[in-house]
Design goal:
The structure holds two protein chains of two kinds.
Chain A (H helix, E strand, L loop, with lengths): L2 H12 L22 H13 L15
Chain B lengths: L18 H44 L14 H33 L6 H23 L13 H23 L8 H26 L6 H34 L6 H15 L14 H13 L1 H15 L10 H24 L1 H7 L4 H30 L6 H34 L5 H37 L24
The chains are: A mainly alpha, B mainly alpha.
Chain lengths: ~60, ~500
């Protein structure tokens, strides 16, 4: 197996980390806090990366 | 819902149902099904925590005031000390850990809990077992083995009530929704299976078909250390792997690293028991293997610590707001500290100084309280509002709980580690009389009582707050209770 294939496999394995998120509680949306605006910039960077998984770029607190 | 308790997505005529709606309803159904058993486990755990706190503070006082209640047999140090530890381990730790594990397993398996009465019966019998055990120890029926002091009838009750809980854990796992098994489930499943193995093996080898001579001590410490690592450690780490990503809304930094951490944890932690018996009358290989295993636990510690740190990177300021995050991150950091201190005190040169001192007690508190209990407190702040449908009443009480716990356990551990080291140095000095070693640690023991007063305050506050939630006095709001007010009006509803 080539090194690139191994890296691809490892990277693919990392995707399992997202199984605790779903459409109602997506990546990028915290589930136990509402963010003050001054802290939202912390999430914007991440939200941009995960935009495919996260329909909401502005995180808000949810309780479900 | 299908016959196995799984929720299926079905068309509802003309009503338009989105996947998001289905997921929300699914979670609500799972929470509703786990409500009663989990709240019973939590409520019982907190009651036992208060019992343990009472005996804990009495224990600390009697270490420098031994004549206190010395004419009352059941309040002598030899009885209240095991009662403190056993109520902390089997009353608080096991019940709170099982409550969190049941909820997490149901959520991650995406199955509702069927026939919760069996679990409720398990909780009830566990309570009976702990109560009988504590009364037995107070009455003088102590077996003499560390963390296995409960008399036989109590141990048997605990074991069979645990089997009821285990069965339900396995049933949930068996009927889980198809998909990847998350790392938290690995830890929880491991804990579910390791506990009966540890407990049954120790009971058989110490009481039913007892091994000979010093091997009893080996079995005893194999059990005690593994209970700390494989049972409490697994539940604590599994919970942290769920809570941290979920609260901040960011997946675990490296899932691959998490898998390596789990398997190395399972492999090395189970060998560490003999580190408590360094220089004891045992084959050298037994002790050396345990020391080597303890050093190798640096691998899971590094992977877990790095993973949690990288997951939290740029998000640490959020600990200012979320109670769950604050407690869980404190616990996760304490796990790293606990393991590093464990490696240091397992080295022969250090063990010769501290192994018969209070330092080992401080190290145990680090694992059982600073790590496990703090993570479980965090999980309770997350889970309870979802079960009772209300938010925590007072942010000020959560803050008081956190700071009293953090300072209380921080001081306890620091005083016991430093005091234990000083005590060990005095013990090893042949020119000093033995009484000198007990004198040298007295200031630290008095300080420890002050630390326990802080812990008592923290536990009373938490019990009161939990009681308010249980009685329906929580806030009716759609957003959580934050530790600090948000900094802007547009930050969301409070």
């Amino acid at each position: 197996m080539r090194l690139a294939e191994i890296f691809a496999k490892v990277k693919g394995y990392d995707e399992h980390a997202a199984v605790i998120f779903d459409r109602d509680e997506p990546i990028g949306r915290p589930t136990d806090l509402v963010l003050p605006p001054s802290r939202r910039s912390l999430f914007r960077r991440r939200a941009a990366k995960d935009s495919a998984n996260s329909p909401n770029d502005a995180p808000s607190g949810t309780r479900s | 819902m299908n016959p196995t308790g799984q929720i299926t997505e079905e068309p509802l005529g003309d009503i338009e149902v989105t996947t998001s709606d289905v997921e929300r309803v699914e979670r609500a159904l799972i929470d509703a099904s786990t409500r009663l058993p989990v709240m019973i486990f939590y409520g019982s755990a907190i009651a036992w925590l208060l019992v343990s706190t009472f005996f804990g503070i009495l224990t600390t006082i009697k270490l420098f005031w031994p004549d206190l209640f010395s004419n009352v047999a059941f309040l002598t140090w030899g009885r209240i000390q095991p009662v403190h530890w056993d109520s902390l381990i089997y009353g608080w730790g096991c019940m709170a850990g099982m409550g969190t594990a049941i909820w997490l397993m149901a959520r991650l398996c995406r199955t509702t809990l069927r026939h919760p009465l069996v679990l409720i019966a398990g909780a009830a019998f566990w309570n009976v077992g702990v109560l009988m055990g504590l009364l037995g120890v107070l009455g003088g029926a102590n077996t003499g083995y560390e963390w296995l002091e409960f008399p036989g009838f109590s141990a048997l009750t605990l074991f069979f009530s645990y089997l009821l809980v285990l069965t339900w854990g396995l049933v949930m796992f068996r009927y889980r929704r198809r998909g990847h098994i998350y790392i938290t489930q690995w830890y929880l499943l491991g804990a579910f299976l390791w506990f009966p193995w540890l407990y049954a093996s120790a009971q058989v080898m110490l009481f039913i078909l007892p091994v000979e001579g010093v091997m009893k001590a080996a079995v005893n410490w194999w059990f005690a250390n593994n209970l700390l690592f494989l049972w409490f450690g697994s539940i604590g780490l599994g919970t942290a792997y769920y809570m941290i990503p979920k609260v901040i809304g960011r997946p675990v930094h490296s899932y691959y690293l998490a898998a390596i951490g789990f398997w190395s944890f399972a492999l090395f932690s189970s060998w560490t028991g003999m580190m408590r018996l360094i220089d004891g009358p045992f084959p050298a290989w037994m002790i050396t293997a345990s020391i080597a295993a303890m050093i190798l636990t640096i691998i899971p510690v590094a992977t877990v610590g790095l993973n949690h740190h990288m997951t939290m990177r740029d998000h640490f300021p959020l600990m200012r707001y979320s109670p769950t995050l604050r407690f869980t991150v404190f616990g996760a950091i304490a796990y790293t500290a606990f393991s590093i201190v464990g490696v240091i005190i397992s080295l022969r040169s250090m063990a010769r100084i501290v192994s018969f001192s209070e330092a080992t007690v401080g190290w145990t508190y680090m694992g059982l309280y600073a790590f496990f209990t703090m993570v479980i407190f965090g999980s309770m702040y997350y889970i309870v509002p979802r079960l009772v449908g209300r938010e925590w009443r007072y942010a000020s009480l959560i803050k008081l709980h956190f700071w009293a716990s953090a300072y209380g356990i921080g001081l306890t551990v620091l005083l016991l580690l430093v005091g234990g080291f000083v005590q060990g140095l005095s013990l090893n000095d042949a020119t000093l009389p033995f009484a000198e070693s007990t004198q040298s640690i007295l200031p630290y023991l008095r300080g420890r009582t002050l630390a326990w007063i802080l812990l008592t305050v923290s536990h009373l506050v938490f019990a009161f707050h939990f009681g308010l939630m249980l009685l329906g006095f929580g806030r009716t709001a759609s957003v959580p209770t934050f530790l600090n007010p948000l900094e802007s009006k547009s930050g969301g509803a409070h």
